[in-house]
Amino acid sequence: MLNKQKILVASSLHPWDDPRIFYKQCHSLQKYYDLTLIAVADSKSFQKDNIRIIGLSKPKSILDRLKNARKIIQEAFGGKYTFFHFHDPELLWVGFIIKLFGKKVIFDIHENILGIVQMRNWIPNCLKRPLGLLTLFFEQIGQKVFDGTILAVKPFLKHFKNYNNTIIVRNFVIIEPNEIVKQKHNNHSIIYVGAVTYSRGILDLVEATIEIQKNKQDIKLLIIGRIPDSNFKIKLTNLKETAPIPENIQFLGHINFLKLKNYISSATIGAIPLHPNENYLFSYPTKIFDYMNWGLPYVYSDIPYWEKTFGDQCGGVSFQACNKIDLKHKIEKIIYNDELWNKLARDGKNNIHKFNWESEEKKLLQLYNHINGINR
Fold it and tell me: Which of 137, 184, 223, 262 is deepest in the core (most CB within 10 A)?
């Protein structure tokens, strides 16, 4: 460990156990580097899988964000790190400061910033486009200044130059070696995992479930993920109470990724009901990879980029985005047809090798080697 270069991976917004950041990238990097992750966590500091984790408070205001940024800067300069690898556009200015002092800096871009700002309700509409363009401009400056830039999908390259230090690292899966044993139930359950927001189609999913309940009252819906907007949470709760069996619609909050198998084993179908917003049009709905990996059939919005990637051979059936009636019909089509359900489950498992994290890990490590001038 003493001979290893030190990396500080930082996110002021993501939870420490974010699957892309912690379970994939950090686990891959810690094979060769001394790794510390600073991210949102309940504890101040702890150790997990040979990775040191420093907790940040969940930001609720601009002041909180500045406090987190200050803590990141203090750790970056106090910890004798060789690399600073950060994940959020709001930390761009932090990256520029750290680069000024000779650190090797890598910026990891998860999403299309122009699409992200359009989805932020707290930003006035008149400022969304200018703010998105301004942030994109600084991202492009960062590509020239920083030692490496990581993009999540190839279409993001349209906003960046195709430099040697810019790579695509897709959020693919660590393939599950063992089948998840499905529990047999007389009733059926729909599961959604991810952020719980309007733009992710959660209202559509709840409304579709309510429609199914009118004929099949034993249908359940499990929604796993944080609800960042308190007003949206109230709206969801009120909608839930209109269901024939409200207790069969559950909002379970955030659950650690490794514990999700307990819920997947009893689920009948997964759902990815995202709206066709700009941020989603050319990004991967990574939960599809997990559903395939788990052998769980799923329904997903008919966004063209997704249909081109997954089609009807990867364990899912598309429905017309934002159409709760079509969503209802596609869910019923799968869960009440055992032959189709079994085919989709097999298709997902048979094709998951196309989306294996091992290929992305190699690119990530090669970027670090390239920056270090190492052939490994």
Answer: 223
